[in-house]
Amino acid sequence: MTQRQVKAAVLLIGDEILSGRTQDINLQAIAKFLAPLGVQVAEARVVADIPEDIIEGVNALRAKYDYVFTTGGIGPTHDDKTADAMAAVFGVRIDVRDDARAILEAHYKGATNLNESRLRMARIPDGASLIANPVSRAPGFQIGNVFVMAGVPSIVRGMLTDIGHRIEGGAVVRSRTIRGRSVREGDIAADLEALEVATEGAVSFGSYPWFAPPDSFGLHLVARSADPVALEKAANDLIALIRARGVEAEDVNDAS
Amino acid sequence: MTQRQVKAAVLLIGDEILSGRTQDINLQAIAKFLAPLGVQVAEARVVADIPEDIIEGVNALRAKYDYVFTTGGIGPTHDDKTADAMAAVFGVRIDVRDDARAILEAHYKGATNLNESRLRMARIPDGASLIANPVSRAPGFQIGNVFVMAGVPSIVRGMLTDIGHRIEGGAVVRSRTIRGRSVREGDIAADLEALEVATEGAVSFGSYPWFAPPDSFGLHLVARSADPVALEKAANDLIALIRARGVEAEDVNDAS
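Predict the joint structure of the above. Result:
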């Protein structure tokens, strides 16, 4: 039995990523979170804090993939445009919602004032379900197949813990990485392709050079497959392929 | 006189970024390289090593932006699909080209064999001009408004040095960052929006919380503008905005 491949897209929202001010680390965190659930990230986009760009990105991705995960743009400041953009995408009303407001009231009572700006974080599109934020409380939300999260990486990690149970995954694609030393891509390329062809689509192989200055170099050869038996064979084949050059091959990771 | 805004897109190509195996750092490097040339990155996408996905991404982005910069997929192995995809995008022939072949022959003579796999790196679409690779020699190329680079970050940095002179930039957007301590977004959001509104589009403001566990926190407030006078005023306004809360404000960087 072959399980369905379930695919997701990630939409990173924020001027600060495009300007180079901020190094995104959310894409990698989301991809690593989803993989063991049987969901592969098949595309990602980064757009600015511009409603039209957010709307266009979400619409393109939600039609094409099973799930969409967004980060950024749900804070209290004027450059946070994501929630309203999502309401526009789904053609629904958006306003301060009681359940979200109650979360903020409980959090901000006392020291800090729940002013109009903070109440913006309780604006939730009609029909969305909240995503808990264990870090700073202001919730994310799910609407349709789109999961809307904050941009701060620690909050993303927190919100993902309230998302896993909502995901229906498919085949879990696992990978094995074999590290070869003093071997170059051009020397193994033909054999690597032959290995992939022989699997008839069951395994995909990737080759990634590494350099450790001043003079160490080599390759990480990666096999990816949803079939554990084919993957195990592929890892052994990669080790043999490298050792046939008379150089070291190391099994860097286990299936994960 | 208002200079034209010149915009670029970045297309990161590679299964390894989408799977989370590799943390991309090329987007940030490209954005920081282009900014002082008067080119703003307005969108980025990440696609897998799948010809159709590469072609679709390039076509969408090259029609919409002044320049497109791609990374990844131009090595010697079977999962390197970018060069052929570019030929398809522009509807031109692709084959081993003499100028690219000469570069590889000079590099590989002696110790390493210039075999068929390595010769794949001399496959260049008709009409493209080469981009020098000072690290590992195999060239990138420019075709139309698309710059095709390798995926390895050190090679990207090297190739960018052969790209700058080909770029016709516009207005240089500079930024100033003011760091406030013990101040929360919700407390300054209304005033921050008022500052942006008052500039009538000359300056855009962004707000980015920071946390330094266990108990330090604050904001980076960022002003971005192509107008140096408006930017200087914006930076001073941001400092005043934060100090009005009775907390520290620090000018973190100069215009750059």
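The two ends of chain B are 22 Å apart (CA to CA).
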